[in-house]
Design goal:
Elements: H1 3-7, H2 17-20, H3 23-28, H4 35-44, H5 52-72, H6 81-98, H7 107-125, H8 134-154, H9 160-167, H10 171-180, H11 210-226, H12 230-241, H13 246-253, H14 257-279
Helix pairs in contact: 4-5, 5-6, 5-7, 6-7, 8-9, 8-10, 9-10, 11-14, 12-14, 13-14
Length: 280
């Protein structure tokens, strides 16, 4: 007889855990479960099962170190490490959601290329300031990796020939990749030229000088004016150089103001035609 029975208190027998606990509930209490076990439980749990989201989240957390290590491979290439870790995590989630254990493929063999592919797409689609062909983007990554490896192996900065030999490409291809890498990052026109300088990079760029166009027009206008009849040339000079009104010009020339207006229009049309033909 149990103590509860001796005291007169009712005793409720607990059913076996296997009879009442869902497999997912047992898994959620196993803190020592590894990533493979969690993946198997995610795969064996129906999509509509309320326990599946928690299992999936734990599986992601279990495999995050793999994603983080892969992201760190691309550190120092111009992108913030936090952005790379986030991108790698996106690749990990895709790998977990699409992994099929029935194919007999180890998860790491499937997850690693999936995560690396996500990282490469990040560099290809979002990190470049100016879009360049995918071939050059991938070549830049290969050159960057080769440069790090060869610097460590040779004890010096590798030459173009060293990188070309290491990658199995021509020196021209390496130079093209290096040149294309200049499109990876742009420099703001507001960048100061020195630590104590108030001059910015944009201040050094040339601007369109419209006065040059006026000089060219003046040079072309001189022979065009000389080709006009004397009276038309005189009227234009009085109107545009002397700033005289049409009435004043009419009084000086001895014709009506309307006739002066027609002469000005005719002279301007001739000048336009002359200058247009000269340009052609």
């Amino acid at each position: 007889m149990t103590r509860g029975a001796r005291s007169g208190l009712p005793v409720t027998a607990s059913p076996p855990a296997a009879a009442t606990s869902h497999p997912a509930s047992r898994s959620s209490r196993r803190s020592a479960a590894n990533g493979d076990d969690l993946l198997q439980e995610v795969a064996s749990t129906a999509i509509g099962d309320p326990h599946r989201p928690a299992l999936r989240e734990r599986a992601i957390e279990a495999w995050l170190p793999l994603a983080n290590n892969l992201a760190k491979r691309y550190a120092g290439r111009g992108e913030h490490i936090d952005d790379l870790i986030q991108t790698a995590a996106v690749g990990l989630v895709k790998a977990i959601d699409h992994f099929d254990d029935n194919r007999g493929v180890d998860f790491t063999a499937y997850a690693i290329p999936t995560i690396l592919g996500e990282l490469k797409r990040h560099f290809r689609d979002r990190a470049w300031a100016v879009r360049v062909p995918r071939r050059l983007q991938e070549l830049r990554l290969a050159i960057s990796a080769a440069n790090s490896t060869l610097t460590h192996a040779l004890g010096r900065s590798p030459k173009v020939a060293d990188i070309a030999t290491y990658l199995g490409v021509t020196e021209e291809a390496v130079l093209e990749g290096i040149e294309g890498a200049r499109a990876y990052r742009t420099t703001s026109l507001s960048t100061p030229l020195g630590t104590d300088s108030t001059t910015e990079l944009g201040d050094t760029l040339g601007t369109t000088e419209h006065d040059y166009e006026l000089v060219e027009l003046h040079v072309a206008l001189t022979p065009a004016m000389a080709a006009l009849p004397d009276r038309e040339r005189k009227i234009l000079t009085m109107r545009f150089y002397g700033n005289m009104t049409q009435a004043q010009i009419a009084e000086q020339v001895g014709v009506s103001q309307m006739h002066v207006s027609r002469l000005i229009a005719t002279a301007l049309a001739r000048l336009h035609g002359y200058l247009t033909d000269d340009v052609r």
